[in-house]
Amino acid sequence: METPVVIIGAGQAGLAMSRCLTDRSVEHVVLERGTVAHAWRTERWESLRLLTPNWMSRLPGHRYVGDDPDGYMSAAEAAGFLEGYGRSFAAPVRAHTTVTAVVPTPGGSLVETDQGPWRCRTVVLATGAAGAPHVPGISAALPAVRQVTALEYRSPDQLDAGGVLVVGASASGVQIADELRRAGRAVTLAAGEHIRLPRTYRGRDIHWWMDAIGRLDERYDQVDDLSRARRLPSLQLVGTRERRTLDLNALAAGGVQVVGRLVGVSSGRAQFSGSLANVVASADLKLHRLLDRIDEHVAAHDLAGRVGATDRPEPTRVATAPTEIELSRFSTVVWATGYRPRYPRLDGSVFDRRGRLRHDGGVVEAPGMYVLGLPFLRRRKSSFIDGAGPDAHELCAHLVRRLSRRRAA
Fold this sequence. Notes:
This protein is of the alpha/beta class. It is about 25% helix and about 20% strand. Strands 5-2-1-9-26 form a 5-stranded parallel beta sheet, covered by helices on one side. Helix 1 (about 10-25) crosses helix 9 (about 385-409). It starts with a strand and ends with a helix.
């Protein structure tokens, strides 16, 4: 089979690119290992909701039109939203087609799948950033404790009775820790670097403010340290009807024991960093810098009469945290330590020494290959549903120019 463009993945990034190509009348196919929005249906815990409010669910030619714009979609609702998006323009999705390899050819690429090969001139990798969980090597020192990744976690009932150690204090870690403690479990949270944010500030969702001040649209070629910006942890937020803030203060007040980063295991004891106070002080400092920027925006645009008064969160309260805990206290360790992209087999030259894809704003260092859906790909919101469209528009234009040059040649 042959087509000019093969898109791998039918999530928000793949569908956004498909819509952009459809609008330009470019023939293409979308190959998906499951069905549309497969990961949203099969790789999310039951209570998960988007971190972004519904009004931010915007894609090329499509947006949320329901009666709860300030709410937060569940994973199933997000999957339905994307499924409806694909139907709206008859996206050419080939479901249940697993791509196993992308092999360079003189005229483009050979995309090998379990349903037969595709020849194309251009490939778009849209498999997302959360393809596989990242589990630190220290996990090998925990043979007697059940270990579950955030990608495998579904609900408290799934875990064995007993205490739980949740490792990681970004979005997944704090949400899972909160759910477990609400279910009556004894929870210890090992917190490393994190980005603390209030759910709302001055009466508006924090994402409303970040959208208003232009922070989410900051581009990859405008930041001083792009590599670090792409490695930052996810925002410490939760989407709930009451729009509550979920930070270390809230967790500690609910009975979660907060300790430092997990650094080792020795003689049946888990060892934690003693730098928790410094970590939370850094997170608080960055939080107040953002709120300062919001307040400056309010003053510059004379918004004080239309938004609420300043309501800054209290400093993170750090109780004296132990640096060692007996592993016998825990029946389960939940690894909420981030994710890594998962690609089909690619030529090794497209990866750097750390195994990261070499690309410039989504244009991969391989002829005719693009990537979408990674953190800070072209702008700060690239990994959000709301960021897939702008990135797809720009990369689609680049892709079409390349196809035109090849036809002219």
